[in-house]
Design goal:
8-stranded mixed sheet; 6 helices; binds 1-O-pyrophosphono-5-O-phosphono-alpha-D-ribofuranose; about 210 residues; Rossmann fold; alpha/beta; 3-stranded parallel sheet
Length: about 210
């Protein structure tokens, strides 16, 4: 694995991944699990945010510590990335959320852009792309392309499950983008699905399978 790839080994993540993968897990539970795993992955992805010294007055005196210095934008890739937004916002409620719409053409497996809601110029210091699936890696590569063209300087990717191929493709195309994941599976099938994976994260969240 490239050095900028972080696969969470936390037992809570491993346990929740088993429930998420299970075909018996219905959409309500699937959405809850996505949200909970997103909290843990997002937390890890933001461990190197810059801070600055600050003081605060407590009821008993003055305390010194650190406060966040960087502004963060979460960039979910529609549709499946939506399932990670609540979890990410629960630990960083003041982050901005900018949506990018991409779907994968079923024949070519190439991403097609259908929506992009970004302000004229970057308003944040760090962009965290949210997409639970990194299959061929095509969607993530295009999302980062869009953010770089927009002028984003510091971009990270937070996902839930990936194929080895997807990780390699994103790392090769954007070696400056660290990748945070809960699991990596060995292969893709002919239809471009991660195997054994968890199925289609968009369909399983929204009951559209
Ligand atoms: C899925 C998934 C990723 C993409 C991953 O989206 O949510 O965005 O495919 O595949 P890739 O790495 O090969 O590009 P999909 O196109 O099914 O759209 P959806 O999220 O709207 O269901």
């Amino acid at each position: 694995m490239p050095s900028r790839v972080h696969i969470l080994s936390h037992p809570l993540v491993q346990h929740k991944m088993m429930l998420l993968r299970d075909q018996r897990t219905e959409p309500k539970k699937f959405r809850e699990l996505m949200r909970e795993i997103a909290v843990l992955v997002t937390c890890e992805a933001l461990t190197d945010l810059a801070t600055e010294e600050a003081t605060v007055v407590t009821p008993l005196g003055q305390a010194s510590g650190y406060q966040l210095k960087e502004r963060v934008g979460f960039v979910p890739i529609l549709r499946a990335g939506l399932g990670m937004v609540d979890g990410a916002l629960s630990i960083m409620p003041n982050a901005e959320v900018w949506h990018i719409g991409l779907f994968r053409d079923e024949q070519t497996l190439k991403p097609v852009e259908y929506y992009s809601r970004l302000p004229v110029s970057p308003t944040v210091d760090v962009c965290l792309v949210l997409d639970p699936m990194l299959a061929t890696g095509g969607s993530a590569v295009v999302a980062v392309d869009i953010l770089k063209r927009w002028g984003a300087s510091r971009i990270k990717f937070a996902g839930i499950i990936a194929s080895t191929e997807g990780v390699q493709r994103l790392s090769m195309a954007h070696p400056d983008v660290p990748i945070y994941l809960a699991a990596v599976d060995d292969r893709l099938n002919e239809a471009g699905f991660i195997v054994p994976g968890l199925g289609d994260a968009g369909d399983r969240q929204f009951g559209t399978g």
